[in-house]
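Hello,

Following up on my earlier ticket. Below are the two sequence lines again, exactly as submitted.
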Amino acid sequence: EPEVTQTPSHQVTQMGQEVILRCVPISNHLYFYWYRQILGQKVEFLVSFYNNEISEKSEIFDDQFSVERPDGSNFTLKIRSTKLEDSAMYFCASNPGQTGETQYFGPGTRLLVL
Amino acid sequence: QKEVEQNSGPLSVPEGAIASLNCTYSDRGSQSFFWYRQYSGKSPELIMSIYSNGDKEDGRFTAQLNKASQYVSLLIRDSQPSDSATYLCAVNNNQAGTALIFGKGTTLSVSS
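Thanks for your patience. The regenerated structure is below:
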């Protein structure tokens, strides 16, 4: 069964450094997402991506964040100048392309900013 | 501010019992509703989706939706210890976009 994959599974970085989180969405899915979950808190939407551009973003997704689909398979989230409060689990998700359809989540990247 | 509310629990039930999980949402335009299960340290895993008022059954799971009351629930019959997890309610307003708004989740503990 096709799955969303994410790398790395864990990332430790120093405050102020840049990190890139990588995702391979399910093949032939059209919508891609990033969510984050701070420890003990709810899953929060960051950004959605469709047709090679951002289709929707939350207030959390400020200029510190960017997304890119550098090739036909990878979908990346870049966090510039990381802050302590960026420590969280970051989930990538994808859906086939119809609004309201199920989003399938990857296993997540646990980011720790020291 | 669109909100999805769930009792955080923990909800404790004995093995074999029915577990009832509830969720309310604030956005009256919401049209798609999902229940995800999340084990500690893992990603959300879809259990069920529901789009129309009424009940939808899938094995031991039944989702119930009442749009007038802005309420969605999940019943788990014959609860098993392996059902012990956090259950996340997620809601989408298709007209506003495709982002899911999640509740904080209800922690279920099934004792054997």
